[in-house]
Design brief:
Layout: H1 20-38, E1 48-50, E2 55-57, E3 65-68, E4 78-81, E5 113-115, E6 121-124, E7 133-138, E8 155-160, E9 190-194, E10 201-205, E11 243-247, E12 250-251, E13 258-262, E14 267-271, E15 279-286, E16 291-295, E17 304-306, E18 312-318, E19 322-329, E20 332-333
Parallel strand pairs: 11-13, 12-14, 13-15, 14-16
Antiparallel strand pairs: 1-2, 3-4, 5-6, 7-8, 9-10, 15-18, 16-17, 17-20, 18-19
């Protein structure tokens, strides 16, 4: 029913307004509609109450959506709507002050967190002004492998505007970044380092529980000059040297343990100063003429001449005396 307005006439007692019966009937009809909309028709049961500043709804049921105008009355509003439910649903707002998050974009204030149901933090978010790099978290379908070419394992990766971005794990105090085992024979904690095509991987793993080992290890001081020329760690089971194949004149490498020398005439080689305690071995593997090596600093003379195939030296570098012979097979020292 539409609202019925009382006819008041043009002036008091001019006889043009509604009579008492008609006016009373309109009043009754208006109140019946209000009591029907907000109650049982004879009593209000809607749970609506109000004072000068607050309207209170007790257990309301709202069909459709709620539209918020905002601070400015214009053509832009925010609509709060629900997907048509297939069962009774309950959404409980927490006892906290903050901003409602969206499924397509979640914004946290600096120091914001994701908490458990006891308000203890799972994750704390720290803001960096003008950030351009971030983390990308991806789940996976079946497979669960990170070393078979295509990635089929869940991943945490660095992404953003920079071309090369490190990924950092920072423990607190004297804590460690630990790779735990889930248990099982020969299933120690392990880190796999993939090749550049992610089709092969070398695995660094801990001793088994039976070894009872909690030792500490430190990497060598000289770590090579770049990704393309790293120094290779030695194995406890076997020592396999990285090899420089040098043909003709040139510099003996400081970034390999061993140099295999091929000469194509009487040629000169050089050896720069190393680092304290560095060991270097050199062997002539093909004889096209004498190879004369001049170390930058040589404790046993000035030159080492490789005359025939098999001629070899082992040297050690000391900061106080330069390169020193440990052993010599067939070479001429001058």
């Amino acid at each position: 029913m539409a609202y019925q307005s009382l006819g008041l006439g043009s002036s008091a007692n001019d006889g043009t307004g509604d009579d008492l019966r008609t006016g009373g009937d309109k009043i009754n009809d208006n109140f019946v509609e209000i009591y029907t909309k907000l109650g049982t028709g004879t009593a209000l049961t809607s749970g609506i109450s109000a004072d000068a500043t607050t309207v209170t709804l007790t257990s309301p049921e709202i069909s459709g959506s709620i539209i918020f105008e905002g601070a400015t009355a214009d053509a832009n509003e925010t609509t709060l709507a629900v997907t048509d439910p297939t069962a009774d649903r309950t959404i409980t707002l927490p006892d906290a002050t903050g901003t409602v998050l969206l499924d397509s974009k979640i914004e946290f204030a600096n120091g914001g967190s994701i908490d458990d149901d006891s308000q203890n933090e799972y994750i704390i978010f720290s803001k960096v002004a003008s950030a351009v790099n971030e983390l990308t978290i991806a789940n996976s379908a079946t497979g669960g492998n990170a070393s078979t070419g295509a990635l089929t394992a869940p991943s945490l990766s660095a992404s953003g505007g920079d071309t090369n971005i490190d990924l950092t794990l920072i423990p607190k105090g004297t804590g460690h970044v630990a790779i735990r085992s889930v248990g099982g024979t020969n299933n120690q904690g392990a880190i796999r380092l993939n090749c550049e095509q992610n089709t092969h991987g070398q695995t660094l793993m801990a001793q088994p529980h039976s070894a009872g080992d909690s030792g500490f290890f430190m990497l060598p001081l000289d770590g090579g000059s770049a990704r393309a020329t790293p120094n290779v760690l030695l194995s406890g089971a076997k020592t396999v040297a990285t090899v420089q194949a040098l043909s003709g004149a040139g510099a003996i490498s400081l970034n390999t343990l061993h140099t295999a020398l091929t000469t194509t005439g009487a040629q000169a080689q050089t050896l720069a100063n190393g680092v304290n305690g560095q060991i270097k071995t050199i062997t002539m593997v093909a004889d096209g003429g004498d190879g004369t090596l001049t170390p930058a600093t040589f404790a046993n003379g000035s030159t080492i001449t490789f005359n025939d195939v098999g001629d070899s030296v082992m040297l050690i570098y000391n900061t106080t005396g330069g390169w020193a012979l440990i052993s010599n097979t067939g070479c001429t020292i001058a």
